[in-house]
Amino acid sequence: MRKHIFNAGPCKLSDSTLENTSKAVLDLNGIGQSIMEVSHRSKDFQAVIDEAVDLFKELLNIPEGYSVLFLGGGASTQFAMIPYNFLNKKGVYLNTGTWSAKAIKEAQLWGKEKVDVIASSEDDSFMYIPKGYTVPADADYFHITTNNTIKGTEILEDYSSPVPLFADMSSDIMSRPVDVAKYDMIYGGCQKNLGPAGVTFVIIKDELLNKVVDRPIPTMLKYQTQVDKGSMFNTPPCINIFAVRETLKWVKSLGGVEEMDKRAQQKADLLYGTIDNSKMFKGTVAKEDRSRMNICFVMNDEYKEKEAEFISFAAEKNIVGIKGHRSVGGFRASCYNAVTLEDVQALVDTMKEFESLNA
Q: How far is CA 106 from CA 74, 81, 101, 188, 203, in A?
């Protein structure tokens, strides 16, 4: 029996992604080789990565003049690659949580005076998205993290920026339509909404490559290298890319990101509605900034000692992955694309049953 999986990442994948990838592990398209054995230079794998790129462009309606890359190293490597390539005089960052703070730290290796943290919600433990700031027009770029997996806030609009806009969309990519033309780069780890851990997507505006800082950059860390070689300067994570392709095919079959957007809202409305009407549970972040991907909540003070008991109670109902991040505590239900409304309903029913027995 499949469990109700709410892991923050790696996360639940669609049944078709799991089934088709498992088949390819034994034999890729009947060629007598596993996807783990086939040469990345072969026409068989080239067809896989080409289709993954094409689906990415189709589903997000990516305009002409952008390249889509599949790389190793995770979003954390992108934190370093971005300033290495594009930080000259000043990089501007919006600090909304743990992952944006890590990106800021990497950029500050080039000098803290070169990094402008234009706004931050750290004063309230990252429980809201900062507003009311102005991005300076002389900056090299403006970097944001659109969804914050640990505290559970999310930016659900596409900002307009006077300078190149870079976005870490690791945990909400493909969950809603995105106006890609407003961004010069969108990147993220694929282990939330797209596939298994081990592959990173990068959507980069080709014109941006003309703005790379004139300094020695290690070959692997040059975006130009990766674009020129079609993500194959070195051996790419082949099986991971295959799984991403299968997920993208699944998203398309269901109606694309428009349908994912609709489903994300339905799941969020159901779970947040239950939290807001509970006497035992409560939400943790500003309502207007609540994430649809990572729904964080805790128990009210008088029930705090029952949190561990609830985790065990949920596990008996085949619900896994709801324990909050170790830095926060409480609970976190990560409702990525492959998490179904039925999964969320099972969690809601369990919350209500536990409350009826203990409150």
A: 14, 9, 9, 16, 20
| Confidence (pTM) | 0.97
Cβ-based neighbours of 228, under 8 Å, separated by 6 or more: none
Full 3-state SS string of 195-240: CCCCCEEEEEEHHHHHHCCCCCCCHHHCHHHHHHCCCCCCCCCHHH
Q: Of 140, 168, 172, 261, which is the active-site residue? A: 168
Q: Which residues of 294-312 are buried (b: 16+ CB within 10 A; e: fewer)?
A: bbbbbbeeebeebbeebee
Q: 77: which 2 tokens?
A: 């490597």
Indicate the fold that domain 15-254 takes in CATH.
Answer: Aspartate Aminotransferase; domain 2 (3.40.640)
Catalytic residue among 12, 151, 192, 249: 192
Q: Residues in the chain, how many? A: 359
Known catalytic membership, residue 192: yes
Q: Which fold has domain 256-358?
A: Aspartate Aminotransferase, domain 1 (3.90.1150)
Q: Which of these is catalytic: 12, 99, 184, 267?
A: 99
Give the three-class secondary structure for 188.
Answer: strand
168 is known as an active-site residue: yes
pLDDT digit string (tens) for 59-110? 999 999 999 999 999 999 999 999 999 999 999 999 999 999 999 999 999 9
pLDDT tens digits, 170-222: 999 999 999 999 999 999 999 999 999 999 999 999 999 999 999 999 999 99
How are beta strands 91-95 and 115-120 bridged, if at all? parallel
Residue 40 backbone phi and psi in degrees, to 5: -70, -10
Structure tokens given for 91: 């990089």
Q: Is 250 labeled as catalytic in the residue annotation?
A: no
